[in-house]
Amino acid sequence: MTVTPTSEPLTTLSVDTLVIPLPHPVTSADTDTLTDALGVSFTRALRNLGGEVGDTVVFYPEASEAEQVVLVHAGAIDADDAEALRRGAAGAADAVRTAQADTVGLVLPSLPASLQAGTQAATQALVEGLALAHYRYTAYKTDVDDAAPTLDAVHVAYRSDHDAEAIADGATRAQHFVQATYSARDLVNRSPHEKTARDLAAAIEASGDTHGYTVETWDREQIEDEGMGGLLAVNRGSVEPPTFSIMEWAPDQAVNSRPVVLVGKGVVFDTGGLSLKPTKDSMDFMKADMGGAAAVVGTFEAAAQMKLPLHLIGLVPATDNRPGGHAYVPGEVVTMHSGATVEVMNTDAEGRMLLADALSYARRYDPELVIDLATLTGAAVTALGHYASAVMTSNTPDAAERLYALQRAGERTGDRVHPLPLYDDYKKQLKSEIADLTNVGGRPAGSITAGKFLEHFTDYSWMHLDIAGTAFLSSAQPYSPKGGTGAGVRLLADYLDHYARA
Binding of Mn(2+) 1: at which residues (predicted)? Predict the structure, then answer.
């Protein structure tokens, strides 16, 4: 998909579909836009438009080169929040897809004076909303009619009173964020039979080749040599070997002398192991248990496309978690990469075992900051549902500043996070009589005790994102269809962009 700005008059803009977001309150400039594009009065155009954000009405005007014009309710514009525009534009995706439109004109509405400085953000939000909502994964569809049409080009139409440079920047940024999110969604949605640990590692290598970052892939022997006991324990029930992918984006103009490290949980399918999951509403969507790994891949792609001036390292430990004659069992003690010993009380708490090894390995980079992403706990879903990811952070001097910056990135992108505490009081829930700690802390505060477990393997500035509720959806949200969402990609791309400029 390409995204390009245009100042061409709407009546002569040659696109399949013209999308006109209508924010509230309506301005005279917007009414003029409607009249020019539709060839009908403003009052008539609004007659059938619903009152909810995302509601649409479709016209087939003779005055426009477009085959159809979609008017969409874009809600109230707030100077600090472009999310209404993102959700409003998403409402037009169904009409665009139904018309099988390959090219779309997206009209930038008039902006209040308070938001003129946010023209870039408004442009980005509109394009993201439309394109992210348009996404469908159809790799396994055999009926051509079921295959989603491709959105090849989006032309952002603007008037002379808009900031053309800001619009161009917003359009380019949106194109990068959307492509990276698509990549993460595609990885999550891929069938498990084509997504072994080696398949995931190969996909990461292919992404690196395409986007210009380096990838090193370790096999079982190298993982054994490194002493990654957690990853190896989880892998024991599988017929497929584990992998450990090391990604690096190291531009010459990097502003950080010590890297930022991103760690993604790569459990390509999770049965729960011997602590077997139920199928319904649990194991049936566990192909998404590598959503953290997908988010790291997407973030690296966005960073490379943006030419982000940051030295980044990405770590993806990958395996499936299955029952079997050699599977790790409740009650056994595992020696981790760090040398710490863990008493396994539940084999379905496997993600933290992989992540702990990767977080321990990250120490050798002397990182400036480490961020891990994982579909880690059902408790995060219980606490926050599907509308925000949980975030926990180490108690270092920069913790409050880091957390605030990440929350602001979440508000800007709509990929929101909410903090949970990591008080030392929670340590006692992980106490073991025979090892250094257990891998579960009981039912109370399950997300927090999982974070507390991971904290044991860190001694640097660190943030943990539990994306269990946001990485995969069983019912659609405004610009996230059912299935993989790409949670974390736009959040981290935005956060790291601001981090580099701080």
Answer: 270, 348, 350
Q: How do residues 120-147 score in pLDDT, each as one tens digit?
A: 998 999 999 999 999 999 999 988 666 6
Lowest mean pLDDT among 76-80, 207-211, 260-264: 76-80
C-alpha–C-alpha distance, residues 265 and 249, integer Å: 19
Is residue 116 over pLDDT 60? Answer: no
Q: Can you tell me the distance from the alpha carbon of 265 to that of 376, in angstroms, rounded to the nearest whole number?
A: 8
289 annotated to a ligand binding site: yes
Distances (CA, A) of 13 to 87, 101, 160, 199, 254: 24, 14, 16, 43, 41
> pTM for the whole thing?
0.96
The catalytically annotated residue of 97, 136, 159, 277 is: 277
Domain 186-501 of CATH type 3.40.630.10: yes
> Is position 428 annotated as part of the catalytic site?
no
Among this protein's residues, is 277 annotated catalytic? Answer: yes
Tell me if 128 is assigned to a ligand binding site: no
Is the domain spanning 2-160 CATH 1.10.10.10? The answer is no
Spatial distance between the Cα atoms of 124 and 166, rounded to a whole number of angstroms: 10
Among 71, 14, 8, residue whose Cα is nearest residue 38: 71
User: Is pLDDT of 479 > 90?
Assistant: yes
Annotated binding-site residue? 350: yes
Amino acid found at 152 = D
Q: Which residue in 185, 190, 322, 352 is the catalytic one?
A: 352
Residue 496 carries which DSSP code?
H
Mean pLDDT score, 60-72 = 86
User: Is the CB of residue 278 less than 8 Å from the CB of residue 474?
Assistant: no
- Domain boundaries in the chain? 2-160, 186-501
